[in-house]
User: Fold SKIV2 Helicase from Calonectris borealis.
Amino acid sequence: GLPLLDPVGALQLRDPEAVEAAARARALGASLGAFRCVHSPHFPQQYAQFAARQELLEQLEHLQFLLSDQSLLLLPEYHQRVAVGAPR
Assistant:
């Protein structure tokens, strides 16, 4: 594949968290080939199922927030903002 861009060197990142995240991403990428599962002929299908499940879980979490007390507490502020921005 294409060589990966070094975010620390090429983008001049100085934020310690960004530098640490880039180092972790490099280490994880280097160790990926050691996992047997990625060499399975079923991996693409299994990964697609896993990704779809994760997406559904994220949607569920978002919907649960929308139904939560915290979200309902923000509802009056939302209606006020909509009323202020509405054409007269």
Q: What stands out?
A: Helices lie at 7-10, 16-31, 43-66, 69-85. The mean pLDDT is 84. The chain has two domains: 1-34, 42-88. The first helix runs from residue 7 to 10.
